[in-house]
Amino acid sequence: MYGDSADSTIHQLEEEIEFLSHQLKEKQELLISLKQKKQNNALECRNNDLSTADISRYSRQIILPSVGLDGQKKLKRSSVLIVGVGGLGCPAALYLVSAGVGHIGLVDYDDVEINNLHRQILHTENDVGLPKTESAFNKLLLLNRNVKISKHNCQLTSENSISIIRQYDVVLDATDNVATRYLLNDSCIFARKPLVSGSALQTEGQLTVYNHLSSPCYRCLYPQPPPANAVNNCSSSGVLGPICGVIGALQALEAIKIILNLEETLSSRMLLFDGYDTTFRCIKLRKRKLDCDVCGINPKIKSLIDYEQFCGSVANDKNASVNLLDKTERITVEELNQLRASQQPHLLIDVRTNPEYEMCHLSNSLNIHINSLEKNTNCVLETVEKLKQFGDDPKIICICRRGRDSQIAVNMLKSKLSTKSIFDVEGGLHAWAAQIDNNFPIY
């Protein structure tokens, strides 16, 4: 009886705490919103001179010869758009707001997830589920209320990009997909804005400045997009958090140098950072191409196009559905679950990397990474032969994280093996976690 009473009291207290926490969060958001409106009204009425508080706050950078009082005024009058409030955008925003850039724009379509927190340092556990622009807005306003912060809670597209970009002096590309990189490049050329482009993957990072001081644009270097299957991002290949911090901070530095009209930017140069060896290299880029399709003398592209179609890949990671197989070559997670429960002979091949497999996997599955699957067809054949003693034609099932690589694996195996009973699992392990086992880890 006592145990039941204690459990009931604990449950009641937990519900009350959750309710009060929700109320507190709502009040905090309302307070921040009111302060922002008040601050925006004050900013509109205020001239561009520095106040006593400004001089005190920014004194450590004002005394730099490369900044000075005039430089700080330039920062106060300037505006920077950060596209992507993730691993790169978070540290970049922190330093730009801290430096006193007068207006910061934040573009992101996504919500905060728990797997963001190891690298996206503006967000906290309490922000999970909030739009990233909202979460970042709340933190940045607490850091510096004298900066105007605009939220663009949307995905940048050919329809809205130019109208958003034209409101700002400098644009930061803090995204991680090729389609958006081409979109931002072309938009910045049409809007005549410098573009600070950064990327971070695994333990490496890159940084350069496009469309500034006669530098080449992204299309000058990459006239055609790479094959969709060859492009990796943090979601598929991983990244070490501090790599994002290094590149994001350097993006903020390049934006500040552009605002201050300093010539020593990464225009026409690319910085390469190897976090594993802790080394930096700076390489000189080829000159701007006079026959570039966008920034050349006689450009072929004079308006924004369909960049997802051009790149053959989506501009976000929320719609990862790819159909490379016929419907008859695929099974659902429900069908896989029934197959596993029936004890029918089958071979389940997990084509993810070994670290991913070690992190989480279905029992009795064989881990062969897709890159080495072709070399391991003999291993697959041997396993299938062993299974034949339990049935005439055991099924071969390929599974991956979201159901993309598994389709490629099916086509690969069908070209090497005589058996036709080869299938992939629609939606992969994400679908398994959502529909079969809610306790299965997703990442």
UniProtKB/TrEMBL annotation:
Residues 342-441 form the Rhodanese domain. It comes from Parthenolecanium corni. The active site is at C234 (glycyl thioester intermediate), C400 (cysteine persulfide intermediate). InterPro entries: MOCS3/Uba4, Rhodanese-like_dom, Rhodanese-like_dom_sf, ThiF/MoeB/HesA, ThiF_NAD_FAD-bd, Ubiquitin-activating_enz. GO terms for cellular component: cytosol. This is Adenylyltransferase and sulfurtransferase MOCS3 homolog. Signal peptide: none annotated. Binds 1 zinc ion per subunit.
